[in-house]
Amino acid sequence: MSTTAADAKMNAFVSSLLAKMTLDEKLGQLNLLTSDMDVTGPSIRASYKQDILAGRCGNIFNAYTPQYTRQLQELAMQTRLKIPLLFGFDVIHGHKTIFPIPLGEACTWDMALLEKSAHVAAAEAAADGLHWTYSPMVDIARDPRWGRVAEGVGEDTWYGVQVAKAKVKGYQGTQLGANNAVLACVKHFALYGAVEAGRDYNTVDMSRRQMYQFYLPPYKAAVDAGVASVMTSFNEVDGIPATANKWLMTDLLRKEWGFKGFVVTDYTAINEMINHGVGANTYDVGNLALNAGVDMDMQGSVYISEGKKLLDDKKITIAQINTAVARVLEAKYKLGLFDDPFKFSDSARAAKEILNAENRAASRDIAKRSIVLLKNEQQVLPLKKSGTIAVVGPLANDQRDMIGTWSAAGDWHKAVSILDGVKAQAGNATVLYAKGCNILGDSVLIKKLNAFGGNIELDPRTPQQLIDEAIATASKADVVVVALGETCGMSGEAASRSDLDIPENQRPLLEAMLKTGKPVVLLLSNGHPLTLTWEDAHVPAILETWFLGTEAGNAIADVLFGDYNPAGKLTMSFPRVVGQIPVYYNHKNTGRPFNEANKYSSKYLDVANDPLYPFGYGLSYTTFTYSNLQLDATKLAPGKTLGVTVTVTNSGSYDGEEVAQLYLRDLVGSVTRPVKELKGFQKVMLRKGESKTLHFNITPEDLKFYDKDMKWTSEPGDFTVFVGGNSRDVSSADFTLLEK
Ligand code: BGC
């Protein structure tokens, strides 16, 4: 059947169903409620049963497993119209097989792999009764204090666009309706990553130009890729909460971008608009949300409580309700739920497809590629598989933290600790272990984290006893691997930090290990970019391992022993100190760019302007040199493509992969332009001694921006092309875009 014929069939089905529905049944389709989850698994709460049976709830989240979703779906099948429930869940970086946190996974610079992890997650979720994931999160963020940077892909717009496309494709597959595809939900629309001071749920305020140029493109890319749903954000956009923002939800999303799916609020986001101060009660805020074009209410039950009254008072029309309901029904139709409401609730399939060896292998592969080598002096790494290795630190023998934030259905008992990974791959080496210190020493913070689901267990020994044991262990070893960083509850939602150092109680352990005189490798597990100025100055080797998921320990061992040569590159700058934030590579030049010789230039008195580790940065066990950057023309006619070539040589002594990055600068514009913008990259494998010439094409689209009239266009004039292994260390060449 052609798309138009299929659409016509769907439209006819949905219209005829709508014609049969009462107002209550319609409002029920706009209502999304959470199920109760407890440690032994989800359980039915009486009120849901009644709501579902009464047709007051058409959608459930936080319910999974084939058995449980089947039970709930059976209730829906007892309703008058038998409209199937839609089951949503936060499948953020894997369902049961957990992949690296998104900020870590982004460091692979491998879109095929990012698509694959989404595909595996979708297949597992679908086998576990789910229809809909609340992912991808594509909020561009320049403030590493924000806890939710862990869920996104960092600071770059162009890169965010590539990831948004890959993720939607990975989750939704080629066609919804396949039993291994789920509805994706791009979030949080919009601008959530720009919360003031990096504090979660805080105010956002930015110019239209900034939105269009830097923050909106990844959401739009998801829409262009056919994302089935959009989630509103908690923050305000231009003074109006996103969930009440008609400009955002209707003018931009529907009219300008042509979005056809449905919009769901974030968790109780309608109700929270009372706190925002744009309505006095649920009636007011329900009115705002419905009129803004928000289709489904997550957990607020406002449409259920106020919908009828709003209609009676003529604040909204039945046509508006019908449009919203139709969008929800269409999603259910596309999944094939009207043909078989139980098609995703298949226990035999779940047993076979969830957390199987193949999925774990995919997770390990992506995890090892997410690791970023930040420093490697004196070739401390890779480690030899002989002699004695001391593995110390609070994150060394830790499974819980390895799966990171938002690993909702992930079972940390299935995760591989760093210690176990190292032991399994150590060959002839002897591996010793000591904890060295607790993960945190700050009792107030521990209490806070444990109160909200953390399970930080403290070793009762004193800090000195723990360190002494670690020193004794290290003294028997040839090399010391120190696993430090954050516990997983220190990033993610409602987990912003004002201080990005590794927790201060961990520093004495690191100092003690360095004092032993043994070579030290620092392994970091964390969900924010950290401030590592001290560590960079004192520790010879540093590996950024994020929270790598179920296969964390194995992936880390792959890299430690050089079975895999690390090639990850950061997608978010690591500041030197918190006071530099926001620090990001694609900043503007200002009227007084930094100049050492000029007192009155843009700078700090006490720290450099640039980050410690810039966007795109990451080392390898080998070295790469760039040479012979050439443009195939220095004058470019409008509408033409410019060829760029550069030779990359593996000049070190290991085979390895390099991510060659291409940046552009538009030197003169009708509005100010960033000093650099990523416009392309290539990941290449080079044997030691091997050289390859890489070809990039700069297309007319790459030169465009929002001009002084907010038109997406390019302007004639001079441009610089930069190519290199990160955003700081680049070679450059110039060209001119001609008038005609
Ligand atoms: C988060 C969303 C999430 C939702 C449902 C909210 O608190 O902001 O990202 O999808 O909860 O769990």
Provide the descriptors you would attach to this structure in a database record.
740 residues; alpha/beta; Rossmann fold; Immunoglobulin-like; six-stranded mixed β-sheet; five-stranded parallel β-sheet; 28 strands; 31% helix; binds beta-D-glucopyranose
Question: What does the model show?
Answer:
The chain is of the alpha/beta class. Among the domains are: 1-83 and 318-344, no CATH class; 371-571, Rossmann fold (3-Layer(aba) Sandwich); 624-737, Immunoglobulin-like. It is built from 22 helices and 28 strands. A six-stranded mixed sheet has the order 13-18-17-16-14-15, sandwiched between helices. Strands 6-5-4-1-12 form a five-stranded parallel sheet. Helix 7 (157-172) packs parallel to helix 9 and helix 16 packs across helix 22 (552-560). The radius of gyration is 26 Å and the shape is globular.
